[in-house]
Amino acid sequence: MNVLVPLPFVLLLLGAALTMISRRRATWLRVLAPLAVAASLAAACGLMAAVSRDGVIAVQMGGWAAPLGITLVADRLSALLLVVSIGVLLAIMLHAVAEGAGGTSETEPGVFYPAYLTLTAGVALIFLAGDLFNLFVAFEIMLASSYVLMTLTPTAERIQAGMTYTVVSLMSSILFLASIGLTYAAAGTVNLADLSEHVANLPEGTRTALGLLFLVVFGIKGAIAPMHLWLPDSYPAALTRVTAVFAALLTKAAIYALIRVETLIFPREQVSWIMLVLAAATMLVGTLGALTHDDVHRVFSFILVGHIGYMLFGLGLFSIAGLTGAILYLVHHIVVQAALFLVSDLMQGRTGETSLRRLGGLAQMSSFIAVLFFIPAMSVSGMPPSSGFIAKLALFQAGLGEDRVIAFVVTGVAVLASLLTLMAMSRIWTLGFWRPRPEEAGEPPAAASYTRASTRLMGTVTAVLVVGGLLIAVFAGPLSSWSSMAAADLLDPTAYRNAVTQGGAP
Amino acid sequence: MTGPALVLVLAVAVLFAAGFNLLMERSLIRIVIGFMLLGHGANVLLLLAGGAAGSPPLLGGKSERPMADPLPQAMVLTAIVITFGVTAFLLALAFRSRILLGEDEVRDDVEDRRVHTGQRRQEPWAGGDAEADPLEENTEQESAEPGRTQQKTTGQADTGPGDTGHGDGAKGGGA
């Protein structure tokens, strides 16, 4: 059973190598790459089943005992996120295949698929990593491939945005490395399970300092309020399918790492209010920013920033209920944000526009796209029967269940931010779908940019993702009980620690 | 024992300060150099985390004295490889930027500048004119800042002659 733990990651890297070799044969690429992701998804599902049966599974790579070797750990949280994110990545991959990505043309050489698979492998390794340094390496794998994807099919705008993105990510990586060095100097280990024992002996001040350092590191990577500025500038410039990947996973991986690290190292009482304040700021800045922009991609990027605040809110509460809400929100948001960007790709394919000034009449042109936009838009604003509502409800209940004034205040801000999100979404709906097409927009492009079959496949993939978002709401019961067990494991790492110290070789 | 370690700590401080300072420049090549300095700083910091200098290395044999911690050294090796690869990518990106934009400076974001200058957005339903394109205004502002452009040209003139590599770059930038 232990061999299942590294398998999702290994299969993806293997796929990346194979696509790299066959990068001149477009047909092979389009078959091999989705196959690799599908195989990895199957392995992740198997891992999830194994975790639900045996609890935490840890593997020592190379057979070195726990604090020395490279440990991979799968617990409830990582197994769940692994399945959800690889599933979403498979959907986006199929969308890209339908779009005819990675042609062997001059402007877009066949690096899309290898880079995409490496990014997916990085994401998988982030969820499985059992020590801080391995986490750093996983982030670098993910980010290095994201730099390539960001600047794919270079235009002047894309290169400029890519430069901002690359430099900011690199700076946070350097800070990450420095924080790891300081942690090692203080505690003498980087293994997460080992750390959870050793940090108890550290002076309060050291723990606070380390916790704050990691908050800054993952705050930059995850776009938390004062450190979010790079995101809305850079994401919209990339190809839409690439932006969908970034928006769905990159920031969420950082939030996962933040949850993992902060539940182990932070002295909770002292600094949880900092997180709550940052969460409130992030929600307000993101949703208000979404209202000031005209470009659909920028609106979605700001919505993404705003909703990072909800996950930080759940983490900042440091209760089982709060963490459950944060985990539910992670799952919901990975699916819904990807769906939103894929829909915007369909909108762009249909009208050739992303600016709200020139969009219009989409509801008349294609009611299919209108429905596909409407469902995730309502979900992200938290309308009742959707997954967003379930996740927000869990968070609000957790916030109101606390006996602290600040938790009440932040819950209020969260409600306000939901309303602002609804406003931003209604703005897109009114301008893009409801009103007649503005005159200055000119004629819509003849739908010759894609073949009929590929348009249909793209629509199907997006529809599947939208339905997946609805399924989260349908299976909210099992999902939330799974999340609350994962949250309990996070707050009491005994099982995690035992599994790591007794874990065998694969 | 404390002597060399203190020097290293100071070196880390200087590398980080200089690196972050360079990151805030607008010229891409300075940003790349800043990133390299930061990388070195972080690597030295990791090495310091392994304890004081001067212990014998871990080489299979036995030693009466405590041996140097090999784990930070392994980490530094990995980190060096990563920094090296990423620096190469950054340089390629800076080169691309020079070809495509004709300059290696980071410009302001167009949309951000529109929001920042408080230019009133023409709400589409108000039937405003679509001529007020922020892009056009942007180019006007760009040319209205002669200081930066001039600085760039003098920089090119300094490095241009004598070095063929730079000469090629300047030509590519002009084209």
UniProtKB/TrEMBL annotation, chain A:
Q: Please state every residue range assigned to the domain named NADH:quinone oxidoreductase/Mrp antiporter transmembrane.
A: 129-410
Q: Which GO terms describe its cellular component?
A: plasma membrane
Places the protein is found: Cell membrane; Membrane
Superkingdom of the source?
Answer: Bacteria
Q: Name one GO biological process term.
A: ATP synthesis coupled electron transport
Q: Transmembrane ranges? A: 29-49, 56-74, 80-98, 110-129, 165-187, 207-231, 238-259, 271-292, 299-320, 326-347, 405-425, 457-476
Q: How does it sit in the membrane?
A: Multi-pass membrane protein
- Under the GO molecular function aspect, what terms does this record hold? NADH dehydrogenase (ubiquinone) activity
Q: Which family does it belong to?
A: Belongs to the CPA3 antiporters (TC 2.A.63) subunit D family.
Name the UniProt record assigns to this protein: Multicomponent Na+:H+ antiporter subunit D
Automatic annotation (TrEMBL), chain B:
Record InterPro entries? CPA3_antiporter_subunitC, NUOK/Mnh_C1-like
Q: Where in the cell is it found?
A: Cell membrane
Q: What is the first-listed, main subcellular location in coarse terms? A: membrane
Q: Where in this protein does the record put region Disordered?
A: 109-175
Q: How does it sit in the membrane?
A: Multi-pass membrane protein
Q: Which UniProt keywords apply?
A: Cell membrane, Membrane, Transmembrane, Transmembrane helix
Record-level GO cellular component terms:
plasma membrane
Q: Where is the composition biased (Basic and acidic residues)?
A: 110-123
Q: Which residue intervals are annotated with compositional bias (Acidic residues) in the record?
A: 130-143
Signal peptide (residue range): none
Q: Membrane-spanning residues where?
A: 6-24, 31-54, 74-95
List, alphabetically, the Gene3D superfamilies matched: 1.10.287.3510
Q: Which Pfam families does this one have?
A: Oxidored_q2
- What family classification does the UniProt entry report for this protein? Belongs to the CPA3 antiporters (TC 2.A.63) subunit C family.
The protein's name is Multicomponent Na+:H+ antiporter subunit C
